[in-house]
Design goal:
Strand content: 25-35%
Helix content: 10-25%
Distance between the termini: 59 Å
Number of helices: 15
Length: about 650
Amino acid sequence: MKGIVYFMFLCMCCACRYGDTAVEEALMLAGKNRGELEAVLEYYREDSLKTKAAEFLIGNMPGHYSFADTVSVNRYYDAVDAVLDSLSGRPMEEVKGTLERLPFRMDGIDYGKVEDVETVTADYLIRHIDTAFVRWKHGAWARHLDFDEFCEYLLPYKMEEFQYLDGWRDYLWEDYRGELDGLKYSDLYWNSALQASLIANNSLKRRLHPHFIESAIVPVYRLRTRMRLPCGVCDDYSNITVSVMRSLGIPVACDFTPHWPVRASGHTWNVVKGNNGNNLTFGGADTNPDQPHNFDEKKSKIFRHTYAANPELKRLHEEAEYVPETFQLPFMKDVTREYMDCKDVEVVCHVGTGYAYLAVFDKETWAPVDFARMEDGKAVFQDVGLNIVYLPVIFNSKGEQEAIGHPFLLEYDGHKKEFIADTLTTEKLVLRRKYPAFPYVLPYAGRLVGAEIQASDSPGFEVADTLFRITNGSALGHEIWIADTVRAYRYWRYIQPWHGTHCNIAEVAFYERGSHEEIRGAIIGTDGSWGNNPERTKEKAFDGDLLTYFDAPIHSGGWVGMDFGKPVSLEKVLCTPRGDGNTIEVGDRYELFYWSKGHWVSLGEQVATTVSLVYEDVPVGTLYWLRNRTKGKDERIFTYEEGRQVWW
């Protein structure tokens, strides 16, 4: 008992000494490095504001990590630099491939981690604090920040875990400060954080030549090297952008949505704290702050990366048996309400205490995007995005996910529309896609409008009968039935007379009357392709691959067809537009599921024989999921309403 009292007295004394129990807790965790951190506090003893800044950094340092073995990590970074030097000017794919193979030629890279409190030196921290204050108090673009905003938008000595602890603030300042010299001649905008971020972001685009693609390159966290990489994802460019702009004194942060509610993965972007106090969104090295950045995209939750730990997340880590990956780091805060209308959601829980999560559907599972503590038989989730389907779940100590309620649509008025399978009431489903058509697909699908199915006895179609004209520009496969009164012809074709369409077509298939089987002849049509691309010739319209397509060398009048060698009578023609490969593909095997009682229930597999699938006796009122068991990875949940798939 005396020991406990003495320990409490010691903590109280330490708290009085440093003014913050979080600081003393960090110092105790620092072990042998405690002296380095105390030296920082002592250095600023006569400067109360910088003391507060040092206490902010040290008090929130636990949980921030760096690499333990900097020798092997630096050896890898140096090897990356050598590859980039030797392949300078070479195609991006060649550089990317070489870097992906690089670790296999090395002895090994030790990525063991160590807490920053055990490694950060006094000199390093003092240099960063002093420089951040100069940019804040004497720079042009952050004077509108209060102290708390300064601590999050400019002060941190790193942007992400495992960032290389070097003098990034100094060398990035030297590299980029000249870009902003012109602002000093602007009477109106010389101190505008927005204008400064515009110039800096354009400079990043020009210098980095960003390629937003995933790769298998082992991560690089040394900024000098990272900024030379040939490609990256949004996380990479957003973190680089924060580093560059904070080095210049521009108040910028990273926001992210942990998972899109209508497709796989999540997204990270940047915000600049404008002089009017608003956060303006942009994509680092991509879209500028004066341009919409995913403005109208559905988002379930939005968080901001912070240096300070979120108390609610710290509590989650202390109490939960298992914490899903999304919430593994406590350094973020909920900013959903800054972006959009949202509602609080109450979920009834009959599983005791602990934590519940709201999840959105991924390609194969449900991905958690929010958390709430279960109390008094319920969990209340705050500031949740609207018009999105969620599933309330929990995780056991092994990380296994379990549904604790029905999936529901959170409607615009905050009402929860639950999806509950009614197995006593069934209907027929006609399915034409396994994934929604995103905007980039629609212009190509629209190139079908005005196309015609023609038949002739002349190879040049000097005299031809037009049997069908397509008027539907949706991103679906088209099943075109030929009237049984139409006679036999030797030559059949698909022709697009409209200007600017280039006869874009992914697949054409002709089916013989009587046998109901696909019939093939000699491929005929417009020779060549736009740009003389050998992968876009007329043969691609008959290769059985929805991801290849014919791209005619002429704006209008391009066509593809077949010479059957003799007159044939056709029953139907299948046409699939250029697109994303997610329409129903003949010959592929599909499986349909419906959600019931906490899991997916299979309704069986089918091999597609046309551009749609038909499932009979399907329970109504629930969610469905169509999977292509042959190939592909893009799949999405949907409901079935008034004879059509509605995607969520």
